[in-house]
C-alpha cells in the first residue's frame, strides 16, 4: 500500500479538491467510501479542508492479473503512476492463449514490486508498433481515460502508403464491422471515425504519412486509408499488395497530462522502418 500526498493551499472540500485534480467522479466516490487519510487520520465521506491540511489518497495493493513472463520492454517514460512502452510488432497487447505484452508488463511489475493490475489506456493491433500507455493504479487509469474522452490526449501515428498520396485532410467516415471480410468497411450504420492525415515525406516509392486520431475506433487508420485507396504497406486485410511480415503502422507521438502532478508529457518514438534522411 502507498499514498498520494496533497497539501492544501485554500479552503475547499475533499470532493471538490479531488475533482479539481482531475479524478473522475467514480474515482472520487470510491475514495470517499473506501477511506483516505486527512492529517494522518483515516476518514470517510467528504470533509471540509483548510490551507495547510494534508490529504493522502490510499493506493491499495492489488494482485497482478496476468502471468508474469519475461520479455524485452522498451520503456519510454515512467513515473509512480504511469508507464509508457514502445511495443514491438508481432505481439498482441493482451490476447488470451498466447504470450502477450501484458505478460511482459506483469513480469516487470513483479520484478519491481509494483503491486497493481495491468491497465492499458490505449491498445494497438498485433502488427502495429509504438507507444502504449499503462496506468499503475485505478485512479490514474480513470484520469487518463477522462483525457481520452475529452479528446485531450494527442495520439499520432506514422504509416507508409503508395507514393504521391494526396493525404492532407481531416477524414471523417462511418465504419462498421463486416463479418464476411473480417474487416471494417464504410457503412451508414457504422460509427464515425475522424482522422487527420498529413504527408510528412514524399518519396519515389512511398509516402510517409502522419495520422492523428480524433476518435478511438477499432482499425480506424487502417480502414480509413484503405477507403481512400491508400492501404498501409503490408496490410493485406485492407487491400495491400506488399508482401511484408507486418503492416507499417507505428504509434510515434503521445501527449498527455500525467497523473498527480498534471505535467505536460510529450513523447516521440520513431519507427525503425523509416529514415527522414533518405531521399
Q: What fraction, in percent, of the residue positions are helical?
A: 10-25%
CATH topology of one domain: Pseudouridine synthase
Counted by DSSP, the helix tally is 5
Number of strands: 17
Sheet-strand content, in percent, reads 25-35%
Task: Detail the poorly predicted runs.
Answer: none
Largest sheet: 11 strands, mixed
CATH class of one domain: Alpha Beta
What would CATH call the homologous superfamily of one domain?
A: Pseudouridine synthase
Structural class, judged by helices and strands?
A: alpha+beta
Order of helices and strands: EEHHEEEEEEHEEHEEEEEHEE
Overall form: elongated
Distance between the termini: 54 Å
Rg (C-alpha, Å): 21 Å
Overall pLDDT metric: 95
CATH architecture of one domain: 2-Layer Sandwich
Family: Belongs to the pseudouridine synthase RluA family.
Keywords: Isomerase
GO biological process, one term: enzyme-directed rRNA pseudouridine synthesis
GO molecular function: catalytic activity, acting on RNA; pseudouridine synthase activity; RNA binding
Amino acid at each position: 500500500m502507498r499514498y498520494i500526498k496533497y497539501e492544501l493551499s485554500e479552503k475547499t472540500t475533499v470532493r471538490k479538491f479531488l475533482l479539481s485534480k482531475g479524478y473522475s467522479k467514480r474515482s472520487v466516490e470510491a475514495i470517499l467510501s473506501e477511506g483516505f487519510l486527512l492529517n494522518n487520520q483515516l476518514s470517510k465521506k467528504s470533509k471540509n479542508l483548510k490551507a495547510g491540511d494534508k490529504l493522502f489518497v490510499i493506493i491499495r495493493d492489488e494482485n497482478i492479473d496476468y502471468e508474469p513472463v519475461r520479455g524485452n520492454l522498451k520503456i519510454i517514460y515512467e513515473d509512480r503512476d504511469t508507464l509508457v512502452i514502445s511495443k514491438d510488432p508481432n505481439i498482441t497487447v493482451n490476447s488470451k492463449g498466447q504470450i502477450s505484452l501484458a505478460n511482459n508488463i506483469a513480469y516487470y511489475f513483479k520484478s519491481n514490486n509494483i503491486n497493481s493490475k495491468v491497465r492499458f489506456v490505449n491498445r494497438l493491433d498485433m502488427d502495429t508498433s509504438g507507444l502504449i500507455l499503462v496506468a499503475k493504479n485505478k485512479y490514474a487509469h480513470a484520469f487518463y481515460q477522462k483525457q481520452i474522452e475529452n479528446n485531450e490526449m494527442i495520439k499520432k501515428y506514422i504509416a507508409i502508403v503508395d507514393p504521391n498520396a494526396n493525404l492532407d485532410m481531416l477524414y471523417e467516415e462511418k465504419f462498421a464491422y463486416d463479418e464476411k471480410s473480417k474487416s471494417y468497411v464504410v457503412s451508414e450504420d457504422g460509427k464515425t471515425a475522424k482522422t487527420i492525415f498529413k504527408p510528412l515525406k514524399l518519396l519515389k516509392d512511398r509516402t510517409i504519412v502522419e495520422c492523428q486520431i480524433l476518435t478511438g475506433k477499432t482499425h480506424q487508420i487502417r480502414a480509413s486509408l484503405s477507403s481512400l485507396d491508400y492501404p498501409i504497406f503490408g496490410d493485406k486485410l485492407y487491400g495491400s499488395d506488399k508482401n511484408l511480415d507486418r503492416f507499417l503502422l507505428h504509434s510515434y507521438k503521445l501527449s498527455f497530462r500525467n497523473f498527480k502532478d498534471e505535467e505536460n508529457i510529450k513523447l516521440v518514438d520513431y519507427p525503425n522502418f523509416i529514415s527522414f534522411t533518405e531521399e
